[in-house]
Amino acid sequence: GQQLNQSPQSMFIQEGEDVSMNCTSSSIFNTWLWYKQDPGEGPVLLIALYKAGELTSNGRLTAQFGITRKDSFLNISASIPSDVGIYFCAGQRGGSNYKLTFGKGTLLTVNP
Amino acid sequence: KAGVTQTPRYLIKTRGQQVTLSCSPISGHRSVSWYQQTPGQGLQFLFEYFSETQRNKGNFPGRFSGRQFSNSRSEMNVSTLELGDSALYLCASSLAGIGTEAFFGQGTRLTVV
Fold it and tell me: Per residue in A9-55, pLDDT tens?
């Protein structure tokens, strides 16, 4: 099935550094969601975006809904070891289409 | 508020058998979606239910089916299991399914041997 193009695939950073990851699509989405998943667990919702151009923060996390509605990015500032995990973007088209389309994920490793 | 509960957490089944997985959504949420997660394909949409009606279906064979009960609890069933059905099956609940936050359960890890 179709998936979003999420990059980078993986990142290895030092504690305290800022991190940025993004998702792009050839199609328009009306909702963008960002999730974090730890091994053996379900994805945990970090940020939800509903309007083009919207910029939303959740603690050290900031995400933006691209103005074209075909992309979104997630920034993590001042990373800490517990930020380690896989981050997924997900888009929802809306209308009568209720499914979430997911990116392949960004594996983040934080070196203390 | 209790989160999304999926049971069981782990299952081992033999090829050819069938399996039923259960999902209890967050109280008040009426939309339940199911996803299959594998290392190769990532997270793939199976189907979505709202008020006991299937509204969307993904590109999976007919061996995969689901249903939703009047209390919004949902089950998915996989018949004639194949080795390739081994995956983490995730359930997500949301208020209305559209334009609202979707919260996932911990998943059911299904291993087919």
Answer: 999 999 999 999 999 999 999 999 999 999 889 999 999 999 999 99
Contact A65, A53 (CB under 8 A): yes
Average pLDDT by consecutive 10-residue portion of chain B (113 residues)? 91 98 96 95 94 94 98 97 98 84 95 98
Chain B residues closer than 8 Å to A1 by CB: 41, 44-45, 58-59
Count the helices and strands in chain A (H runs, E runs).
0, 11
Across the interface, which of A42, A97, A101 has its CB nearest the CB of B105? Answer: A42
| Beta carbons of B33 and B90 less than 8 angstroms apart | no
Nearest in space to B93 (alpha carbons), one of B1, B15, B14: B1
For residue B54, what is the nearest residue in chain A, using CA coordinates?
A98
* Paired tokens of B25: 């959504």
Which residues lie across from B50 on neighbouring strands? B31, B53
